[in-house]
Amino acid sequence: MHIRKYDAGFSRRQFLERTAKGVVAAGVLQPLWPLIANAQDTAKAYPEELQSIDAYTKGKIKTGDIVDAGNVDIVKDLLDPITFKQIKEMGRRIKIVKTATDPLVLNSNKYLEATVRNAGKAKLDGAGNVVTQDGKRWIGGNPFPNAKTGEEVYANLSLSWGRNDVGFYALRDCDISPSGEIAYKYDFCWVEQNVAGLTSDPNKPYLEGFDDMLRFQTVFFSSPNDVRGTSFLSNHFYDQSKFPDLFGYLPAFKRERRFPTNQRFEPLVPGLTLFLSDAWHAGDPMLTWGNYKIVDTKPHLAAAGSNWHGDRPGWEPEVHGGPKGISFYEYEYELKPEVLVIDSEPTGYPRAPVGKRRTYVDVRNMQGLVSNTYDRRGELWKLVEAPYGRYERNGKTVKDGNGEVVWSVQSCMAHDIQSNRLSRFYMAEEIGGGYKPSWNSGNLYEQFLTIQAIRRLGSS
Amino acid sequence: MQNFSYRLSHAIMNNRGISILVIALITAFFGWGCRNVELKTIFSDLLPAEHPFVETFKDHPNFGNPLTVTIMVKRTDGDIYNVETLQKIWNLTRDVDLAPAVDHDQVISISTEKVRYAEATPYGIDTQPVMGDSAPKSAADIEEFKRRVDMAPLARRFYISQDGTATIITATFIERLLDYGQTFEYLQGIVEKARDGQHEVHMAGMPALTGWVYRYQQQMIGIFAITGIALILCLVLYMRNLAGVLSPLVTSVVTAIWGFGFVGWLGLAIEPLIMVVPLLLVARSFSHCVQFTERYYEIYLHVGNRRKAAEIALSVMMAPSVLGIFTDVAGLLLIAVAPIPAMERFAVFCGWWAAMLVPANVFLSPLVLSFLPPPKNVRQITGADGDHGLHAAIKRFLGHVATLTYGRAARVTTVVFLIITGVSTYEFLQMKVGNPVEGSNILKEDGEFNTAVAAINRSFPGVNTLEIVLEAKNQTNPDRVARQAETIAIMAKLQYLIEHMDNPPRASLSFADYLPEANRLFAGGNPKWSPLDPTNEATGAAVGAVMLGTSPKAFLHVTDFEQQNATVSLWYKDNKQETVDHALAQVRKAVEMVGADHPAFTIRLATGTIALQQSINDTVAHYEYIILGALNLVILIGCALAYRSITAGFFLLIPVNLANLYLGAVMVELGIGLDVNTLPIASIGIGVGIDYGIYLLSRICEEYQATKRYDHAIRAAIMTTGKAIFFTASIVAVGILPWYFLSDLKFLADMGLLLVMVMTINMVLAIVVVPLMVWLFKPHFVTRDDLLVGESIDLSQYTEGRALEQAELKPMAAAQ
């Protein structure tokens, strides 16, 4: 039955009213968080118009349809400006799929368990860092599942980037030039080890011996030959006002290089459009940015969790669009019923070329969907988009070290629309050097996340 | 009399309504096309498309930094190492990053994180920006800043002047997003704001140059208004009646609509730099109309009927007018022979406009006149009541001039002209190709832009570069050619060879320059590790060190984004022709020594300001004479057919070519060389200037039939048609000369001055040399009465109109 009161206009009015009053309360028909906490379907929190593109567009676009330049205007208000521009002007297309509503599909299981388990235990201390009520480092999951402010939303994004304690991501990258050709190709590994807020074991929220740290993270390149062994190590402090230490290693010289700690707006290697600052929509410690503000609450079209292509050779997604037909990944999109739009500014970087970052966050799992950065003139500059979801498709699954189906990032596109250069990379089954992805499979610190480790990687 | 022109005139005047309707419909069509008209400077279109240097430039547009703006801050009472100046540089750099269309990755100054120093420490290579997270605020901060600058050799060489008093900020723009006018106005605003008693701030670079041109477009509108008013004032003073003023105005406006509408429909951008030529065409339209109107008045006086007078005037003036316009069109269209896209568009636009003077001036003019009330002062204008005032003065003056062209005086005049011609020939042979100023020849030498270029040249390697391009044979070579040992070695060798020749360039730079320092630092810091091993492995390692954590955009001035192609940049002290010749000779010799062909790449000459200037000079030198030769041939054929005499063709060509010769001599005296600014002048000068000769020669032929005496014919022609020529030349000068005095665009000022000069010389030669030659050679064609261009007509057959004339003129006399 269609309850007329709860049409799209009702939802929109309610979202507008909330944003205007600065009130954030997820859910329209009923509060969202109790449903998630009880592992109930989130669909109960929203009217049909916010979960079905058919209903929202009054049948102009249906689930299963392709949105391209011909019909994207119908859903313009559901897209971020750069995605809209890509579809309208650059030949990108998206396929609309049914909106996922099961909290167990929307989250990494262990992470969701921790979020539920630790709900209400987090607070921001005087400096703005997340601590437990007794002042200790965070103990896992989203610290603010029912976030009320921009800072709280960003705390959810910043403390655990990948929503897994340990991630070893094997990524295959193509950097596309303005003419639509591949300018650079790389295989690289992104290794991420959280040392606080761990979720695999409820009794061990911290990795011992790293009291003032949040995570260690390494990027190392395995192909092509001219960059093989080149690596970067970032040590992130728990104090989110501190810049991470950043080291680079060049195997040819067997020597590491220390970078300026605030050099966050440069590519690691030639051709990459993704900068350290862009990663996970929260690449920099959250307190080195400021002026967080929730500027909108709205339904939004964004990548669904079904964009892992384990049924394709090497897990490689199909591509399309752009001048040569290879610019964009084929993504499945779904209508997210409630998305928070957060603005923030790089207040800790006096030389930052970025004026503002606008991030779209799904309130149901507090996961960043897409972000647009604007330059200091307020002109649109860059898009970072990364679908997350379960690694299961057509009967194929990948499991992590806890025996759970992996829930993780699946691919990423970073598009500088001013210079029209785009980097896209996907989680590959295997990359050059024989590296394969893994999740929560033991401690990677000694193997990948120290200066000695990156030296070893370079010489192997 | 029942010839084609008579029948056509009769048909047009008998169907005035339809004729006006057709012209109105055509005008509406082109008027609609005017909405697409775009005034736009495309600098690459000012370059000759087929020249090898231009092809190199187009294949490698990044080399030579055409989209880069350089802003220099100079402390006038000391060096830059003080809190105030460094804060100013910090602020200015942040403001530049706010410029529209700026590439944020390519804003570089000593305050950005891209200018770094590096030092080897026990913990690895530490690279940090030379300036911290804010401008230095104390003496200690400044000392630390100086220490860091000392450890950044390339920064010291390219971003801080040797004497430490100046520093530069460079910003590169994204062409796709760049609106030159908007970006320039923003940058100029912050530059002006940054200037004070202790700081000079200068801005140079192609976007700034284009911005200045755009800014002067506003000025151009003002000059257009001034010249328009001056032209109308001339008409009013000369004609003193409504028909005489309104007819040229209407026809000129219609022609302008057709001209602009045509390019609007074609979608061709109009180059604002050549807008002086359309103004010349307006002046030409005025002058054609004035000549026609004067003839119309003469006939009207006889026949006393406006429609009939217009019809007769049309039939007698059609052939000489069409021939005169044909030569204008030929002169303008032939400019397209030079393969410079801007000149090709110019030729199409102006050639079409000139061609439209035929329907507008020849056909519309009589239609308009036939509708307008008869002038009250027709007897005064035609001199029927004897000449008064200005008209009489001009006639008296021309009567004196006429005496120089026949009889005994003719010999003296001949000798004088022979001497002038001899001297001019000598001077002409001294003419140089190229017209270099420091900066851009489009703008005045003492203008703000060229002053900026000169200032930057004094403190830094400068803006006059010659780029030698190392181009990959396979643009998708997986080994990336610019990173290979041989490529790097050849770059370095070229630099070494050229720097050890006589008069070497001020500075040179290539990707190879960045590698030894990286090699040294990453190998532990000892200077002995600076040289690279000549292997791909060692070179690749050094390249990896340089590129680590950096965008390839930071090196786009030396190697492209994909690192397949590279350039060796050479900075020379100026762009004078001798420097250009010397630089090119040096480079050719060096390339010959290292060989142009290598397994993975080819060495291509050349791009950069020096090479591009030379490409224009080569083209101008080559095509100037081809255009003139073709134009002479076309005009010779046209005139020979019209006068049915090849002698007549030569007769008319001699004065216009003499005019060109004299103009060349004047240019040598004024120190102006042949360049793209002057390329169209000679062609337009001949095409337009020959009109005067045609009109005068036709009148001599006509007058000869009356008296069969050369001296009488010459005198009568000079005092009648010569007067019209005098007026029309004056009106052209009034239309164009203000550009010389008022335009800050040197390009327009030069063109304006040279056009006025060539038209004035043409006028003098038409009035003096054409009759002089007729007197000296007494050609047979003058005696014939069957010339296509003859203006003669027996008006006695229209004498029945006298009654009407008297009836129409009586009220006029009463009114006077």
UniProtKB/TrEMBL annotation, chain A:
Matches recorded under PROSITE patterns: TAT
UniProt cross-references to InterPro entries, sorted A to Z: DUF1329, TAT_signal, TAT_signal_bac_arc
Pfam (any one): DUF1329
The protein, known as: DUF1329 domain-containing protein
Organism annotation: Zavarzinia aquatilis
TrEMBL record, chain B:
Domain spans labelled Membrane transport protein MMPL: 140-352, 482-776
UniProt-listed PANTHER family: MEMBRANE PROTEIN MJ1562-RELATED (PTHR33406), SSD DOMAIN-CONTAINING PROTEIN (PTHR33406:SF10)
Predominant cellular place of this UniProt entry's protein: membrane
Originating organism: Zavarzinia aquatilis
Pfam short name (any one): MMPL
InterPro entries the UniProt entry points to: MMPL_dom, Mycobact_MmpL
Keyword Kinase found: no
Keyword annotations: Cell membrane, Membrane, Transmembrane, Transmembrane helix
Segments traversing the membrane: 16-34, 220-239, 313-337, 349-372, 625-643, 650-672, 678-697, 718-741, 753-777
Listed name of the protein: RND transporter
Membrane topology: Multi-pass membrane protein
Entry's Gene Ontology cellular component terms: plasma membrane
Localization of this protein: Cell membrane
